Amino acid sequence: xxxxxxxxxxxxxxxxxxxxxxxxxxxxxxxxxxxxxxxxxxxxxxxxxxxxxxxxxxxxxxxxxxxxxxxxxxxxxxxxxxxxxxxxxxxxxxxxxxxxxxxxxxxxxxxxxxxxxxxxxxxxxxxxxxxxxxxxxxxxxxxxxxxxxxxxxxxxxxxxxxxxxxxxxxxxxxxxxxxxxxxxxxxxxxxxxxxxxxxxxxxxxxxxxxxxxxxx
Length: 216
Known about the structure:
The protein has helices at 2-15, 22-42, 44-48, 57-83, 97-120, 122-132, 140-163, 166-170, 186-215. It has 216 residues and is mostly helical. The protein has one domain. The chain starts with a helix and ends with a helix.
């Protein structure tokens, strides 16, 4: 659990480009890519079983989303190497505005795809958490507390979606609305964490609703 958690933290840190130097931004990106590579290696059995067994609607959807996430990461790696100004500045690639825009586009979409990935595996995350904290019993109070927290994340995510201009960023639209880090820092990370949580919560509950209807 620590690996994807740290990778998510590095992702949020890389979004705060204007709050840090370019070197810190690139080092955070390298750390994120390294953690993701480790995460993929730990779960390599899924890739090895990709072409085995029958496919139903859910498996097709999950596979397509995971392949989209991997493609997004590869796009970020390629554009990162092309526009590097510090760690990989020795690579003789003439970066242009389009490559930089692709890099930012991939970063914003990565927030969404990571959120969907988290939502698809939320039941597994909760099972691991119960094992780590040795929670052996379930109770209505904890269930409703978690549901209220999920509802709060949805509301915060919707608010943050507009506050951070996410729709414009995901559609490759140009915006001059940059976060003023000289005034505040913590709200920036809180907004983007909420944006990441929004697709995670929606994906988890929509998938539960759909497969519950299918089972009935």
